[in-house]
Amino acid sequence: MTISPSIYKKLNYDATKDLAAISMVMDNYYVLLVRNSLPVKSFKELIAYAKARPGEINYGAGIGTPPYLAGVLMSKMVNIKMTHVPYKGVAAAMVGLMSNEIEVVMIGTPAALPQIAAGKVRALAVLSKERLPSLPDIPTTAEAGLPGYIVQSWYGIMAPAGTPKEIITLLNKEWGKIALMPDTIEQTRKFGFEPISTTPEAFAQFIKEDIVNWGKIVKDANLVAQ
Q: What pLDDT does 189 receive?
């Protein structure tokens, strides 16, 4: 929704004009994982290791995805050179990490949690402002030494532009109730999410800002879809 406008020259929709925001539903923050055999125990150690080996650290992600752009952003912020290895999806990248094909992935909590719990990968940091309830022992990037390195994707409810305001208001109100239900909180936390609700206006503004933020990263990556 907010990455594509910067990658594709021609889209058949405009997220800020053709859709009406109702509410954000969940944030999906990313976790920086390394393979167990990599001799680093912290985020700072990873940066030092990468700086000493320009281009030798491989990270896996689908092209144009948030994990791919997370690698671009991290490389720029700490002035390192990592090599991107394209995978078709999250599952394939995780298999690549566990089979020592690559050294690093930035991956969403649903895919990360089972492998972290099983001890098959090592988590160094969460790419969020605050520690995640699902990973309370893993430091944020700010705590790990890189403030401002935050990468998230999100889920939200939207309707076609022109939907009557009273319907937008009603759906927003109902989701606000659902987000607070114990069952909703319990089920979403199983996957490492936290249910949230916002006003339609706040969600719409967030989308506009997210398009701008991702646009800067896409430009740095010189990424254009063919």
A: 84
